[in-house]
Amino acid sequence: MSDDVASLSANQMDALREIGNVGAGNSATALSQIINRRIDMNVPRVSIVPLGEVPDLVGGPDVMVVGVFLRVYGKAPSNILFLLPRDSAFYLVDMLMGKKRGETQKLDFMDESALMEIGNILSGAYLNALFNFTNISLLPTIPALAMDMAGAILSVVLIQLGQMGDHALVIETEFNTDDEGIKGHFFLVPDPGSLETILSAVGVE
Amino acid sequence: MPELVKVGMADAKVGTAPSTLISYGLGSCIGISLYDPQTKVGGLLHIMLPDSTQSRANENRAKFADTGIPDMLNEVLKLGASRSRLVAKIAGGAQMFAFANATDIMRVGQRNAQAAKDVLAGLGIPIIGEDTGGSYGRTVSIDLSNGVYKVKTIDKGEKEI
C-alpha cells in the first residue's frame, strides 16, 4: 500500500466502515446511557478526502465547534476527534450538569471537564469495540478540548497527515439525539502507517 | 461587486484590486500575504508545514513555507508586481490544544511561523504585519485594493495588521 491513502479497494473500505460501525455503535450506547436519551447514529462514512476538504464534512472551516481531541497509542496510532457544533455542546452540558436547556452560554472549567470526560468515555467505548473486532489494543491519551473554528481544530489532525500525504482517511459517524438537540461527529483518523495494521487484523489486505 | 477569492488549505491565490483573498479557519497553519501597493497586485498562501524536505509527500508545493512562498512570489511577479516594492504579512501559527507533553507536531504552529519568517527574510521581502501564536483559530483576508490584512477570531474580535 502506498503512503497516501488515495488507493483503497472497495473491500478495504467496507472493512473500515464495519470497524466504524461497531466502534461508534458502542460509543452511542455509552452516550445514550449517560444522558438517558435515545441516540440515532448514521452509517459511518469512510471517506478519503483531500486534506483541505475535511472541514466541509462538518459544515465548513469557519463553523464554530467544540472539539475534544485524543491521541491514540498502540499498534495502530491514530487520532480521535469528537466535534460538536457549539449549540450542541452547550445543550449537552445542560444535560450533564442538570441545567435547563439553553442555560449554558459559555463553557467554564467544570463544563469543559465534563465534555472531556464524555470524549473519554466515547473513545474508550469505541476503542474497546475496535479491540474486540481486530484484537488491536489501543490506548487514548487524556483528552484536550478547544472551542473554535472547525478548520482550526481539524488542522491539528490534518497537519500530521500532511507530512505523509495529501489525503485523509476518516471514519466518521454522526450522532443525533432523538429530539435533534445534539449533533456530533466522531472522527477516527488512523495515521497512514496504521491502516495496514488495521486492515490486516481484519483479514483484508 | 469586488470578487472574494477563497484560498483553501495548502493552497495559494494571486490577483489584483479590487479582489479580496480570504482563507477560513486557520489553526496552526499560516496565512502569508504578499502585496505591491503600487500595482495593487498580491497573493495569499495558506501553508500547513514548514519544510518540504522533511516530508514524504511534497508534490503540493503550496503546503510548505519553503516551496509555497517562492512559488507565490513568482506568480505575483508575473502579474506585474515589483519585487522591490513587495511587502509581506503573516498570521496564524496557533497551538490549538494544550498538552502537558506537547510533541514537536503539536508545536508545528510555532515552527510554521519561524519558517515563514526565515523564507521571507531569505527572499529579502520585509514583513510589515504579524499576528502569530496563541491558542485560537483565525480567518484571514487581504483586500488587494488597499493591502489591508484582516484577522478575525471568535473571542478576540477582528483586527487589521
UniProtKB/TrEMBL annotation, chain A:
Keyword Oxidoreductase part of the UniProt annotation: no
* Keyword Hydrolase listed: yes
Task: Please report a single Pfam family linked to this protein.
Answer: CheC
Q: Which residues form the CheC-like protein domain?
A: 12-48, 110-144
Keywords, A to Z, come to: Chemotaxis, Hydrolase
Give one GO term, molecular function aspect: hydrolase activity
Q: Which GO terms describe its biological process?
A: chemotaxis
Indicate what this protein is called per its UniProt record: Chemotaxis protein CheY
Its organism's taxonomic lineage begins at: Bacteria, Bacillati, Bacillota, Negativicutes, Selenomonadales
Automatic annotation (TrEMBL), chain B:
User: Which terms are listed as keywords in the entry?
Assistant: Chemotaxis, Hydrolase
Q: Name the enzyme's class.
A: hydrolase
Q: Which reaction does it catalyse?
A: L-glutaminyl-[protein] + H2O = L-glutamyl-[protein] + NH4(+)
Tell me the SUPFAM superfamilies matching this sequence: CNF1/YfiH-like putative cysteine hydrolases (SSF64438)
Keyword DNA damage recorded: no
Question: For this chain's UniProt record, which GO biological process terms are given?
Answer: chemotaxis
What does this chain do? Answer: Probably deamidates glutamine residues to glutamate on methyl-accepting chemotaxis receptors (MCPs), playing an important role in chemotaxis.
Protein known as: Probable chemoreceptor glutamine deamidase CheD
What species was this sequence derived from?
Answer: Anaerovibrio lipolyticus
| Organism ancestry | Bacteria, Bacillati, Bacillota, Negativicutes, Selenomonadales
